[in-house]
Specification:
By secondary structure, the chain is α/β, with parallel strands linked by helices. Helices cover 42% and strands 16% of the residues.
């Protein structure tokens, strides 16, 4: 049966989804003071439980500073809304646990990330959370961490030997692309969609794993639009910023005939916002429709009529996982090599359910049907992709 995520189908399970947006893939490991990385519901644990974790971890791994753990968090870039929410969640958990958290800014740059990693090691931190975008620097950073015996969790972009926490890239991308196709057909009519253009904001520098997200967006879109012309798919390099997305979208708009549908998606909401801003500046917003990735730009989703939905990642809850996961490892307990986010569609009509500070707009919603059979074929193609060898844990079973 197709998975339903449209308004009528989602409301029955909305309260559960809002309370527990993060779920891992499998069941199995024993609980660690209320935390099982494979079944955890994503809500922040009480301070008493976090402090009990610290006590057990210290009995196994003595902190370098004798009386407290010091952990490093290298953030992707500290002025991006998604990253701000990840940092806030980490800070809240560290404070409750009695852990000192040192924060650095990688500035979307691999060399800076390497320098930050070296600074953490000079400070003799007990654990590192690494959120860095340049796949070419991941191995160099991990060599230094391994030499120092410092454990690492890599957020969203994998690093060799680090625990992975973050996006289920194949599913989130496929979900967003399929939703975009169905929403575009509802807005423009199915016959006009194939005469339009799909513009996808990529992030090549982050390597093959985030590319599964944007590749999934294209695959999901094509699964719902039989016969869509390959030369009507335009890929741009967003550099993970609104400014670059705006610039690149401005450059490609002259290639798209006036009056045809412009269907937009990207690696994250910030890039989608930049692309939509370029379309609006060109006066072509009447022909635009966009689906984002992250749902962290909730105000834009609420206010921009062309921004119809985003795939929820719930970065504000990342820290609820990351700190217990680190303490579990410091306690010498086994953890999964990868923990993936459970994603849902966040629409204008359901936004306030997930983010109560934002309004819900009573606008027509599509009855979204996730194309399960097509997704299964897409997963099979990923498993046979030689560029993904060694990353099998990041390809979901279904």
């Amino acid at each position: 049966m197709p998975h339903q995520i449209g308004r009528r189908a989602v409301l029955g399970s909305m309260a559960l989804a809002a309370a527990a947006p993060l779920l891992a893939r499998r069941a199995g490991a024993a609980s660690f003071h209320g935390f099982d990385p494979e079944t955890f519901d994503g809500r922040m644990l009480p301070a008493a439980d976090l402090q009990a974790m610290v006590k057990q971890a210290m009995a196994h791994t003595k902190p370098h500073d004798d009386d407290r753990y010091v952990m490093g968090f290298a953030n992707l870039q500290r002025d991006i809304s998604f990253c701000v929410k990840v940092e806030q969640g980490l800070r809240a958990n560290a404070k409750a646990a009695g852990i000192e958290l040192i924060v650095a800014d990688n500035h979307l740059d691999g060399a800076t990330a390497l320098n930050n990693a070296e600074s953490f090691l000079e400070r003799r931190v007990d654990y590192v959370f690494e959120f860095q975008t340049d796949a070419n620097f991941g191995a160099a950073i991990m060599r230094k961490m391994d030499d120092a015996g410092t454990k690492v969790t890599a957020i969203d972009i994998p690093m060799p030997g680090a625990t992975f926490f973050g996006a289920n890239n194949p599913r989130s991308g496929f979900m967003g692309g399929a939703y975009l196709a169905q929403a575009a057909a509802a807005k423009f009519g199915a016959a006009k969609v194939n005469g339009g253009y799909l513009v996808v904001g990529n992030l090549p520098q982050s390597g093959a794993i985030p590319a599964m997200r944007t590749g999934g967006q294209i695959a999901g879109f094509l699964a719902e639009t039989g016969g869509f012309p390959a030369d009507h798919i335009i890929k741009i390099d967003t550099k993970n910023t609104l400014e670059e997305s705006f610039s690149q979208m401005t450059n490609v708009l002259p290639r798209i005939p006036v009056g045809v549908p412009i269907m937009i998606t990207a690696i994250n909401d910030q890039s989608v916002n930049g692309m939509l801003r370029a379309v609006g500046q060109a006066g072509r917003q009447a022909n635009a429709i966009a689906v984002g990735m992250g749902a962290d730009e909730a105000a834009s989703l609420a206010s921009n009529p062309d921004f119809v939905a985003s795939v929820g990642y719930f970065p504000e809850r990342y820290g609820n996982y990351l700190v217990p996961l680190a303490l579990m490892q410091l306690a010498g307990l086994p953890t999964p090599p990868a923990v993936l986010v459970h994603h849902v569609m966040v629409t204008k009509d359901t936004l306030c359910t997930f983010y109560p500070d934002q309004p819900c707009a009573k606008v027509p919603e599509i009855d979204f049907k996730f194309p399960s059979a097509a997704f299964a074929k897409h997963l099979a193609s990923l498993r046979s992709d030689p560029s993904l060898k060694g990353f099998e844990n990041l390809i979901p079973a279904s």
